[in-house]
Design a protein that fits this description.
296 residues; 11 helices; 0% strand
Length: 296
């Protein structure tokens, strides 16, 4: 027979209310947890079966946030690389400052020197004056153009630059103008021009001959043309003496050999005459005036 249930005690009433509240709270937590996009934690109870959560779909605002974050990261990396590059540039500039660079020699318009002068200017400007304005670079080059035929050209080009009658977009263009003006861009014609200027004057025939040979290389002159230039450049006394001989030289080698021998003999003869004259003066005799001592 079942026993009739009596009225609950105050303790039992409180316990029953506590259990109901706990069950209600647990149900609320479980509902909230299941609403999250992530799956619920695994529970060892085999009796509990939960359906998988629906797939999470990103909204447009989520994509915007991710793209913005990526852009900020790219900007930060770009700034970092720029700082590293700036440091490398400063290091390169410091290396250039420590490098010794030779300045060009003064250029006087000599055709054989124009290539070396232009090359030296290019190296120095590229190393030391790369950041300088073109006008300042041109004025720097002009400061090394002095003397000879270059003075007139320098004066004319300076006036044209000042009056803005002529303009160069780069210092390379200006250096090309110098090379064109004084070198002509033709090595052979430059050599010919130098060969026509060379003269013996106060030098010995051996000194003149070596200079003549060196200048004649690359001129294209040979045979009679070369002989005529050699005759023109030597002193008139030696030239007339060789031309008046019974068998004057014809080839350039004979001219070299006989002109050198004649010049050497004449210089030795003159030294001997001066020695004898000095000896007579020491002995008290009046020296006689010698003729024919102006052979060269």
């Amino acid at each position: 027979m079942g026993q009739e249930e009596g009225p609950l005690s105050p303790t039992e009433i409180l316990s029953s209310e506590y259990e109901s509240e706990a069950e209600s709270s647990a149900g609320s937590v479980l509902s909230a947890h299941q609403s999250q996009p992530t799956p619920p934690p695994h529970t060892p109870s085999s009796s509990l079966s939960l359906s998988p959560p629906p797939p999470y779909s990103m909204s447009q605002s989520d994509y915007v946030i991710i793209i913005r974050q990526l852009q900020e990261q790219v900007a930060a990396l770009t700034a970092q690389l720029g700082q590293q590059g700036g440091g490398g540039g400063r290091a390169a500039a410091a290396t250039e400052e420590a490098t010794e660079v030779a300045k060009p020699q003064i250029f006087d318009g000599t055709p054989s020197k124009v290539s070396g002068f232009v090359g030296a200017c290019r190296i120095y400007i590229r190393t030391r004056l790369r950041e300088v304005l073109v006008e300042a670079q041109i004025n720097w080059v002009l400061s090394y153009v002095q003397g000879g035929s270059a003075d007139i050209w320098k004066e004319n080009i300076s006036e044209e630059l000042e009056a803005e009658e002529i303009e160069f977009e780069s210092v390379g263009e200006f250096l090309a103008e110098i090379k064109k003006e004084f070198g002509g861009g033709d090595k052979e014609s430059v050599k010919v021009a130098e060969l026509k200027k060379i003269e013996q004057r106060g030098r010995t025939m051996e000194e003149f001959m070596q200079d003549f040979k060196r200048t004649a290389r690359g001129s294209g002159y040979e045979g009679r043309l070369l002989v005529e230039e050699f005759k023109r450049g030597m002193n008139g006394g030696i030239r007339r003496k060789l031309m008046e001989t019974e068998n004057p030289p014809t080839s350039i080698e004979n001219w070299y050999r006989r002109a050198t021998a004649l010049d050497r003999n004449w210089r030795e003869s003159r030294r001997e005459e001066e020695r004898l004259r000095g000896k007579k003066e020491t002995m008290g005799g009046a020296p006689k005036q010698k003729q024919g001592q102006s052979l060269p």
